[in-house]
Amino acid sequence: MSLIVCKFGGSSVADHRQFIKVKAIVDANPKRRVIVPSAPGKRTAAETKLTDLLFLCHKMAAVKADFSGPFEQIRDRYIEIERELGLSTNMGLELEKFRAELGAGQTPDYAASRGEYFCGLLMASYLGAEFVDPADFIIIDASGCVDPETYQLLARRLEDPAKRYVIPGYYGRDRQGRIKTFSRGGSDISGAIAARAAKAEVYENWTDVSGLLMADPRIVANPRPMSEVSYREIRELSYMGASVFHDEAILPVREAGIPINIRNTNKPEDPGTMIVAKLSPETEKNTEIAGIAGKKHFSMICLEKSLMNKEVGFAYRLLGILESRGISFEHCPSSIDSINVIIEDGRLGDKAEVILNEIQRVLQPDSMELERDLALIAIVGEEMSHTVGIAAKVFIALRNAGVNIRIINQGASELNIIVGVSSEDYEKAVRALYSAFVD
Ligand code: ASP
Q: What is the pLDDT of residues 295-329, one digit of tens each?
């Protein structure tokens, strides 16, 4: 029998009431046999995420500070779930063991992974499922990506069609056997890996919204949900800042052609968003764009040099300077005698000055500038390449809103148009674009 892998995000497992909703969802469909929980998330906006508390405990323990404050908060959360659901998981003992481990010195990855580990123990007991420790099956390589051997190991472990399994999200182990986590929000990746290993018919990703929205609801009031979106579109949108789904989680399921269904744990009757390989003819017909996403905090290095077009290897050397410092760039628009490189501020860090000095020395440009405070906005849609006038609509909307466009970039795939604007125009630009395409 085919099965469904369900990943439940932090808000879906935030307390015992959410656990009860999860059980109702899982029990409603016998195919839902592989469950991947995150660590309990915030119950109120003011609360700190459990994973953040775990990192904090680790940090304090590392300098021999008293970490009992955040530790008690963590313990209370798990003990409350155990007590309210009447489980006999021995959380008290598990947590005391962990306290001692922290005190004795542990890696930050190990500390953070316990958020999912403890949640998984509780969830397995509550659902009557078998607990599968990802440390035994998910291998994460040095760059934070999954090692392909994982799929065989996990497929064998999830083989029994009569069983339900709970695999905590977010972590696995490295080749040396040490606990290693994915990047933040990485339980989505674990769910995708489990779905691929188990050859799931669908990967359900349960969260606290009824699907993906066409724009950021903090900027646009009540943006429209997307009912269907392609892997390619969603990868672009989540890379460009649309939250809800981790951009690295697309790959494992995409390669296996498994659709992803984003669902709302608090409104399980809502169909949510389907992420598919190929859009249905109906979606193709009715949607001009899939959505709009963007991010602030970019910088742009702008270089000009006469006869740059004749200088073989100019761009190569420029990008080589970034490479030698381990900095990846976002875009590199160029014209005859000028070239710009756009870099996320977090990646540039405090290296800007050193890099500019090196560029000056190696490439001797006529002029060089570093522009700060830029925002990038992507207007994404598979149908863009067959539709006349999308770019015109983008530029008219921004002109009417009085937004100056600093960068224009359209990839050869014609899956998106990216515009760069000053950070202070960011929200205004997103709203203008949304109303041009959707309202
Ligand atoms: N708990 C981890 C985090 O907060 C992973 C996840 O929730 O997906 O990033």
A: 999 999 999 999 988 889 999 999 999 999 999 99
Mean pLDDT of the chain: 94
With cut-offs at 50, 70 and 90, classify the pLDDT of residue 32.
Answer: very high
Q: Classify 86 as helix, strand or coil.
A: coil
Average pLDDT over residues 374-389: 89
205 close to ligand 1 (CB < 6 Angstrom): no
Decide: 39 in ligand 1 pocket, CB within 6 A.
yes
Q: Name the residue at shortest CA distance from atom 2 of ligand 1.
A: 185
CATH-assigned architecture of domain 4-208? 3-Layer(aba) Sandwich (3.40)
Report which of 294, 271, 289 is spatially closest to residue 279, judged by C-alpha positions. Answer: 289
pLDDT at residue 1, rounded to an integer: 65
Report the alpha-carbon distance of residue 404 to residue 305 in Å, rounded: 25
Amino acid identity, residue 124?
A
User: How close is the Cα of 49 to the center of ligand 1, in Å?
Assistant: 9
Query: Looking at residues 386-391, what average pLDDT do you find?
Result: 87
* This prediction's pTM: 0.85
Residue spans in the chain of domains classed CATH 3.40.1160.10: 4-208
Lowest mean pLDDT among 166-170, 287-291, 340-344: 287-291
H/E element, 437: helix 426-437
pLDDT at 422 over 90: yes
In 208-290, where do the E strands start and end?
Answer: 228-230, 260-264, 273-276
pLDDT on residue 375: 96
Residue 48, H or E segment = none
Write down the pLDDT at residue 412. Answer: 67
Alpha carbon 377 to its chain centroid, in Å, reads 17
CA of 104 to the centre of ligand 1 (A): 24
Question: Does ligand 1 come within 6 angstroms of the Cβ of 170?
Answer: yes
* CATH 3.30.2130.10 domain span(s) along the chain: 291-437
C-beta of 185 in contact with ligand 1 (< 6 A): yes
Fold type of domain 291-437: VC0802-like (3.30.2130)
User: What is the token pair recorded at 152?
Assistant: 């065989």
Q: Is 230 in the pocket of ligand 1 (CB under 6 A)?
A: no
